Known about the structure:
Chain A is α/β, with parallel strands linked by helices. Chain A has helices at about 15-25, 65-75, 80-100, 140-155, 225-230, 260, 275-280, 290-300, 320-325, 330-340, 400-420, 435-445, 455-465, 475-490, 505-530, 545-550, and strands at about 5-15, 30-35, 50-55, 115-125, 130-135, 160, 165-170, 180-185, 190-200, 235, 240-250, 265, 310-315, 350-355, 360, 370, 375-385, 390, 550-560, 565-570. In chain A, strands 1, 2, 6, 7, 8, 9, 16 and 17 form an 8-stranded mixed beta sheet that branches.
Amino acid sequence: MNVHYHSYDAVVVGAGGAGLRAAIELAGEARTAVLTKLYPTRSHTGAAQGGMCAALANVEEDYWEWHAFDTVKGGDYLGDQDAIDIMCREAIDAVIDLEHFGLPFSRTPQGRIDQRRFGGHTRNHGEAPVRRACYAADRTGHMILHTLYQRCVAKEVNFFNEFQVFDVLFEGEGADRRAAGVVAYEMATGDLHVFVSKGVLFATGGYGKMFKISSNAHTLTGDGPGVLFKAGIPMEDLEFYQFHPTGIYGFGILLSEAARGEGGILRNSDGERFMERVAPTVKDLAPRDMVSRAIHAEIKAGRGAGPKSDYVYLDLTHLPPEQIDSKLPDITDFVRTYLGIEPKKDPIPIQPTAHYAMGGIPTNVHGEVIVDDHNTVLPGLYAAGECACVSVHGANRLGTNSLLDIVVFGRRGGKAMAEYVKNVGHPDVPRGAEVKVRERIEQLKAGTGSEKVGDIRTTLQESMTLDASVVRTDESLSDAKRTVEELKAQYANIKIDDKGEVFNYDLTEAMELGHLLDLAHGLVVGAQARTESRGAHWRDDYPTRDDQNWMKHTLAHLEQDGSIRLSYKQVVAGNYQPMERKY
Amino acid sequence: MTVTESPASPLADKAKELVRVHLRIKRYDPETDTRPRWQEFEVEMSPGDRVLDALHLVKWTQDGTLTFRRSCAHGVCGSDAMVINGENKLACINLIKNIGTDLTIEPIRGLEVIKDLVVDMEPFFAQHRSVMPYLIAHDDPGYKERLQTQEDRDRFDDTTKCILCACCTTSCPIYWANSEYVGPAAIVSAHRFIFDSRDDGAQERLDILNQKSGVFRCKTSFNCTEACPRGIKVTQAIEEVKRAILYDRV
């Protein structure tokens, strides 16, 4: 195993929307390396479908303040309102930026960027759904990912493709630490690369592969949060995990909320439009947490469809065929491919699917990572996108706000880091910075244990989907916690088949599983402690929101002995006072 | 994966009993093999499962050394292009019930094999970069969006779908014979900008594609169009670029 040394001003880890957007700000400003374990265009930003909200008011009256209100309310008042204001205000610029980069938005008859309805986005503080989501058919994420990559090609950004980061480096100890680089594993050779760098920005995406039914890519294993969690950085609000209402039954593949934005309707086995009962004003366009819970309730009440009565229908059959072809071409193709049914004629079997982590690496509005409940910044360390928690999504993210988050805070993180690296000296990294990673790899290859990575991962995914998803109780979370702790013990005793150096995915999957286990552990411990229901975190045994005791962010700390310790940090208040969340 | 059984359900196919799937996979480990070898595996799975699921079953339960790229598992990231029963396909959008229970799987052709089904993608991405695949606009739109009519937007809609999976390029006999040829995927990337009304770089791209390595290498075999998992009319896009060069008109 060879070791290579590199010296940069800035390192970006991950090349999805947030990483690429940051790289565009850094290109030409600082010597920058972008590391990705895939190729940039494989990133899961490309799977986002429906749109990106910004109050452009291209098709009807709209203001960014309305967008901010919807985001605060959608997040069940756990979001930090200073950050939400910034995101919704800068959304407009961010969309214009993307248009200037060449993004092929769908257009209005007047040639302007077209906008459509999306869940939880309303006019004038909840009056009615509003057309706010800018889109490119139903492949908006694909267009954003490719447009940002194209801009990076134009700016000659320096990519290290198929380099997976296994460790983060610091200069100094304890409270005096500052970021100093990363240790990466090169897939093609098995070599280690030490990147010494003044600034490091993590943009590694989510960790939805801890669940069985999931819309996430196989590669979404929480690598950035996992590495930092182990390095003593707390994780914020892990218990807030979003389940998207409309995953393709059995597969979990996402069917965009845009399907309901275009007029699609959810129906139970009786054909009833059950969302009329749950959210009389916005109906099928209620926020995702409410819709997922409503589906869960229909199934529990025996109104689920199918032989096991465990799904409901997304009905598009009443939409004009040409509207389906022009506005929802990709997702209707997914339905044909995976279920073999024609969505123009038959309703689509769907079930909630694990989709998005509201929680993650705690940051401030400049993307700087904070390490405690007093918002202390760790100099040089940044995070953006799904792996980060600003927190703009609070307890439940609104549809389209993830694409917005990556471009707004990717840009802010990149700008802030470009500025930071101009004003600090090069960090001092002692020789042998890679030794810990090298020993871990050698230990995995030498392992003679009996446990298989695939078996542990499957058990984790089944347990998390059963016990820690749409509806939780103290009992179910105890079960999940016990399972995760047993699996962590088993994980210490794993064996991999592939001992080679070249493209050893057997090895990288083993490393990734470690991240999933730690983050799942933090999630269930945080969820069990939070004795209230808020946003995506629903407790059947505590079914109300408790603003008295729980208007606070959880910080989970991974202790040396592998246990989880919790602390809490205040929510940033703003214009909007907590009120009952009705739609 | 949930398996149910009911003739009344639209998911009846997925529900059927498990089937035995036979895989014959072309393998090569540069650390131990001097040449590629074939290896056979048997797995049991639901007919509604993907070819990718079969590969995962082998990797996760029988042989962890089996190596292939994959990510999204539903046909949008472009990682898992491979030759399945003789044709370039994405493993994640082909179901066992449609493709059969006898699978012969090889790496895509025309790019160097590194290990098992993993090929060197660098030449492919270098060709993509060579056609200036980014918007070149000389106007200053200020703080406003540029306008574009729906007709102008539709003009290049088809080629915006490309996911750079390389199914088209590595199905092209001209590309197999001459890797200097930029290949269909790079031409699709160029087309996406040449026909975008907001772009001012058409002439530069057409000049690149008019070189010896460019569009006129194409002999219209249509392999690329048949191979495209996104349904892009690749050959038509290439023809449009050829015409733009010949008639000096976009």
